[in-house]
Design goal:
By secondary structure, the chain is mostly helical. The chain is built from 11 helices and no strands. Helix 6 crosses helix 7.
């Protein structure tokens, strides 16, 4: 239906990017996400007694996760707003809002447009180019999801075998993997400029202070809000240093 409405040579992409079919697809996807979240929360509360978790601890964990997601979500939202003129609300919601990988999606769209001799947002950005770019982003995201679907059961079997050999190993591997991933991301940023380096150091210090105060003062909420506070401190530091420079 969407393909039939495409005028390949038209540069007016507004009717296409806000097509009702795309809106219906976006609404359906987020309806599934909301349903999954409700099922997971129900399963967590049901399994909590077996894990010796009280209702208060479960609520605290859910609250901590929600608060920790505010900072990264704001970053994704800002990127999404900047991409609305290029891809439209339904496409941005399903791609940037769902996957959150703006770098991949923009790169995929740019490369696919380049193969047609066009540029995103330029005079040659026609309905045809939008359709090609959106297809490239969607196919790339589909491969990610299929990879997770295929590899997760395989990795789960390896996890079970490692636990039989040495249960302590599986307590170390996830932590080491997370530290490695975050270190890699942070190291790539600090090499860009002194501002990036100072921002990272200040944000890490702010997070450390929040954790320390949470223990000393017995204020668990400081731990929950630690990530949000460190993000605000980092943004303020980067702004002040950039303005001063």
């Amino acid at each position: 239906m969407v393909v039939a409405l495409i005028d390949p040579g038209s540069t007016d992409i507004i009717p296409l990017i806000h097509n009702p079919v795309l809106w219906a697809s976006a609404v359906a996807i987020f309806a599934v996400i909301i349903l999954q979240s409700a099922i997971y929360l129900r399963a967590i509360r049901k399994a909590a007694p077996a894990a010796n978790l009280s209702s208060g601890q479960v609520n605290s964990s859910v609250r901590s996760g929600g608060i920790a997601a505010i900072g990264p979500s704001m970053a994704v939202a800002l990127i999404a707003i900047s991409l609305l003129p290029l891809f439209g609300t339904p496409a941005v919601l399903t791609r940037i809002g769902l996957v959150g990988s703006a770098a991949f999606d923009v790169a995929a769209a740019g490369i696919s447009a380049g193969t047609q001799g066009a540029q995103l947002g330029g005079p040659s950005y026609t309905q045809k180019i939008f359709a090609i770019a959106f297809a490239a982003m969607t196919i790339g995201g589909l491969v990610w999801m299929l990879s997770a679907l295929i590899l997760t059961p395989i990795l789960s079997k390896g996890d079970a075998k490692l636990r039989n050999v040495n249960p302590a190993v599986m307590a170390i591997i996830p932590t080491a993997a997370l530290l490695g991933a975050f270190f890699t991301l942070a190291f790539q940023e600090v090499l860009k400029s002194p501002v990036h380096l100072v921002t990272m150091v200040v944000s890490a210090a702010a997070m450390g202070v929040c954790i320390l105060l949470a223990r000393k003062l017995k204020r668990p909420w400081l731990r929950e809000w630690g990530l949000g506070i460190s993000i605000i401190v980092a943004l303020s530091t980067a702004f002040l240093m950039t303005t001063a420079a």
